Amino acid sequence: MAPKVLVSDKLSDTAVQIFRDRGIDVDFRPDLGKDKAALAEVIDQYDGLAIRSATKVTAKLLDRATNLKVIGRAGIGTDNVDKDAASKKGVIVMNTPFGNMITTAEHAIAMMFAVARQIPEASASTHAGKWEKSRFMGVELTGKTLGVIGAGNIGGIVCDRARALKMKVMAYDPFLSEEKADQMGVQKVELDTLFAHADFLTLHVPYTEQTANILSRENIAKLKPGVRVINCARGGLVDEEALAEALKSGHVAGAAFDVFETEPATDSPLFNLPNVVVTPHLGAATTEAQENVALQVAEQMSDYLLTGA
Ligand code: MLT
């Protein structure tokens, strides 16, 4: 019998087509990602579950998933999957670490420009028929220091693009060797050095026990006055309340956030502050990236289900 896969989040048609072409019986039910009860009702029918970020794979859901062998996350972060519970049940969790890295890095760079030049506020004001030419004074990126926390796949691309913009780049990343940092043209530093020097600070680490609240109230107090903070990585890396206070006091000059402690974020201490640019977790939202991750997740899951590889 052909293995059965459920796609429970919005995923490009490419994924569905690949599963079919590989002889896998696939159900495309993006409505189930947000309907825990309905998903729990049907999950026992499937060998594979393909998701993005809306579906929450909890221990409770896994208890009902009696036939499940593989969970494929079309994207990078697997923080919506209880990986301990999955591994206890022998369910493989796979992601697609490369498919959306360029897109996410580009979003971080776009957010850096947006906050440096206050583009969203200037755009809203111009749309409103005001012509507030003197209100929106920006800063250049050239010659400024960018502090990158996490110089892996996405952070590494951000470093490369920032160097092309003639920024000085400092990176904090315990996994980055001095040799690799030299090749990348970045200065490997400790966190406190990065905090003291960065004019712009961008985060590119997953949310883990080690990185949770890495930009804590205490660390925000160490930031260089006038810094602009960009987070296109994960909510929970930054103390939003403390950052909002630092923005209000003027210690932090701006922030650009794509991710929030609670998502979907309908409220945040950062909302409605001047020079705070916010987007609804759009880091991976390009047609190219979504095609890439859909294709990769479908190929990987098919390989695993059909050959065990
Ligand atoms: C990811 O982890 O791949 C990104 O945050 C994108 C997403 O969750 O949609």
UniProtKB/TrEMBL annotation:
Positions of transmembrane segments: none
The processes (GO biological process) annotated in the record are: L-serine biosynthetic process
Presence of the UniProt keyword Oxidoreductase in the record: yes
Domain D-isomer specific 2-hydroxyacid dehydrogenase NAD-binding, chain residue ranges per copy: 109-283
Q: In which pathway does it act?
A: Amino-acid biosynthesis; L-serine biosynthesis; L-serine from 3-phospho-D-glycerate: step 1/3
Q: Which GO terms describe its molecular function?
A: NAD binding; phosphoglycerate dehydrogenase activity
Q: What is its EC number?
A: 1.1.1.95
Domain D-isomer specific 2-hydroxyacid dehydrogenase catalytic positions: 5-309
Give the superkingdom in one word: Bacteria
Report the protein name in the record. D-3-phosphoglycerate dehydrogenase
Q: Which residues of the full protein are shown?
A: 1 to 309 of 530
